[in-house]
Amino acid sequence: MRGERILAAALAAAGSRRFRNRIAGQAARYWSAPTGSAWEANSHWRNGIGDQAWLEVGDDHWKIYETFARALNSPSPNTVMEWGAGGGANAVAFAPHAQRFIAADISEENLDECVRQVRATCTTPVETRRIDLACPEQATVGLAGSSDVFLCLYVIELTTDTDAVRAILEIARTVLAPEGMALVQIKYHTSDRRTRGFAGTAYDRNLASTTTFTIEEFWNLAAECGLTPRLITLVPENRLDSRYAYYALTNPAAVQPAPPDEHLLDVKYTEFAATFNADVADAERRAARGNYISRREGEQPSTTDG
């Protein structure tokens, strides 16, 4: 792995844009369609990681969400959207508590499996959105401000660079209702260089650790994207992997103008009326004086007569 890290760094330095584009293309092809049992495990299908692990994924994430929601006094969600729904492990834990569930994924097979698992669990309606990595925001057309909860779990570490992560956070900001919560998980790295994520020479060789952040790096990135970081919890290790950080990010409420102060309006109106009436009275006096002077001047005899 160390040799591959050095080689990947050398390739990136020699032609960074070309290298990034190549890895991004490999990632898009990898996730777009099943390639075997490893793909189903990485997509967290029930038959890919086994019943117990699959159920734990959703249950653990629901418990983290409940803890965050209680701390933030968040109401029960009406609409939940998951970005990267995979095989439905999270969907089956969240959908029963919502009135509407929206599953977004790159793979049509993942979306079909997610819907199948939710329908086997509850009656909550499920919508699907196919993600095109070349234009991911297209998957959110018509969904602006529609979601109370946005989930992005076991996805960030699979992205190919920070720009892709930034795009996801901006999508979360778009689809969340004011004060809605994004529950986002990352894989964090420490001062140990071996924990830092990197894109290998082939995407599928290191996909689960392609992109990592320090705790504060991701906190700051979320804030840059217009979300408000509120809470964080760490899971140093679980059945699937290690160094997981979960963030509660909220969408700021739009600033509403303050309601008018009726008393102040009355005072200002009285002042205006008094000023207006005084101005009118003054104008009438000036007009009357002008008319009087005009009549007097018209009545005086001309000095050129006789």
UniProtKB/TrEMBL annotation:
This is Class I SAM-dependent methyltransferase. One of its GO terms (molecular function) is methyltransferase activity. Residues 80-180 form the Methyltransferase domain. It holds the Pfam family Methyltransf_25. InterPro entries: Methyltransf_25, SAM-dependent_MTases_sf. One of its GO terms (biological process) is methylation. Keywords: Methyltransferase, Transferase.
